Amino acid sequence: MPLTLNNIAKQGEHGSTMMPVIQGVGRAAIEIAAVLRGAVFRGALGGAGSENVQGEQQQLLDVLSDEIFLDEMRSTGFVCAVGSEEQEELLVIEEYSHADYLVLVDPLDGSSNLDVDGPVGTIFSIVKRKTANADRPHVSDTLQSGREVIAAGYVLYGPSTMLVCSVGEGVDGYTFNPSTARFELSHGNMRIPETGGYYSVNESNADQWADNMGAKLENLKAETGLGMRYVGAMVADMHRTILKGGVFLYPADSKNTTGKLRLLYEAIPMGFIMEQAGGKSMSSDGVAVLDLQPEALHQRVPVYLGSTTKVDILLG
Ligand code: P6P
Fold this sequence. Notes:
Strand content: 25-35%
Bound molecules: 6-O-phosphono-alpha-D-fructofuranose
CATH class of the largest domain: Alpha Beta
Largest sheet: 8 strands, mixed
């Protein structure tokens, strides 16, 4: 009998409370995957004609995925609010404003890949509120370091749909089985290899990188001989890095002077997963992603995530 997302309930002190929320993520993933498969026939590819809080062009599917995800978090009954890349402000779930948990989410990460039928993903993390349950959830409830994250993970919409998650007891990968219409454990106890793999970065920015990162990357390449892979969707690049080894990086540059990736719903959940998989998650030399104290919902940071030996060589 295959293990399903119910397996999460048996994991550590948080598994039993996190299982229903992660099952909600699974329901959203199944709905989003179905929408993605038929999008071209519904005229759902392309821009929504609007910008998100980051000033980035929203894809129609960004907006729809955000709505689907919010609906499924509401249906769990355990989530009081959602902080989303697609929403400037914290979204309070009125019917459950007394509930214990908040979810941070990038509902459709890498959506610029959609019109070339490339992989995209959903990234999430779950924190316990700091405000009293009788009070209204506040954005300050989201501003918790990665050390306080209760659970995190991602969904990869590729040839298959995978949900990879952790409740602090290691990392498990579940693949959606169309025959049974549920996620089933396919990659138990995922651990990043210390040898082999790739470096993964948008090298076209190299001459604009801060912190002497151009020279540091050349040194990594010379010392390790790593090949290069870059999909342009963090979920796809990170999933390959965890399975094959190596390092994924997005340094600060002259355009994104504090980095491009968002701390609360990209760097922290992916950093949590990377550390749970035995890797290293740094935001600068000597500063771990999970030790950063968030100051704003859409704050951006540099990231260097991967095999410990490779991250150490890179950052020197
Ligand atoms: P670039 C997608 O827009 C994203 O937020 C991440 O998924 C991805 O790693 C990165 O930005 C890609 O950025 O500048 O290489 O297109």
